[in-house]
Model the fold of this input.
Amino acid sequence: MKRIAAIHDLSGIGKCSLTAAIPVISAAGIECNPVPTAVLSSHTGEMEGYTFLDLTDNMQGYCRHWKSLGITPDAIYTGYLGSLSQIEVVKNIIDDLSSTDTSVVVDPAMADSGIMYKGFTADFASAMKELCRKADYILPNITEACFLTGAEYKTEYNKQYIESIISDLSSLVKKGVILTGVSFSPDKIGCAVFDKSNSSVSYYFTEKYGGVYYGTGDLFASAFTAGITKEFSLNESAETSLEFVHKSIRETYLAKTDTRFGVAFENHLNYIYEKYGRKI
Ligand code: PXL
Done:
């Protein structure tokens, strides 16, 4: 069985980070090995009074033990990181645990809707850019892409704007850039996929529902990393991830639940299993 090391926080409420990565990667028929970066009582968006236990000091020894067990992940997937020093630790872990066959996927989770998540600064974005240089694939949303490149954040834009951001990001990575949250019309949203092997940009869209849906970036990146690890193409992995997230958002939108608590992805894990689970 293939294995993915997922370097993320564990948030008790909100269905994001590890509570998204573990079920999605498992449904794909891949072992998910978590490297918890922090333990929070909930994610930090639109939530007050959450608890936060930083695990930076635990991470290096945790992964050194894996190394002593002869563990080499097929992919290393990083998401929300709680501090600048944690980025340095994650860079070392990638160097220690990966082989030439290990895919490195970095989701530079730090911002959305034009602003940084609570507690993050411009310094964090610079450090995250350095982490992106270790990646085969990165999956920023448009806000994160702007913080990484210095581009102006816009809510209305055209293909030229998107492709100029992608072009700036492409020098950071080895294989591809998946820019999420791309929308050229009020009723459609999706992603732009840059394949560095042939310099092509492909677009995928689904229906757009109003509202902010927490954890969907993590669900998308988890499904994407699973697809790549099962050796589906970059474009196929991105398209499946988008469809999976779309199904989960649609159900949540129709149920009118409090979106701070995450989307109803559980009922759509069968889609991931059908797409990826059967392939060795
Ligand atoms: O989904 C991204 C994410 C992950 N983990 C924590 C977060 C967020 C976004 O707000 O706060 C703790």
Notes: DSSP finds nine helices and eleven strands in the chain. The chain has one domain: 3-275.
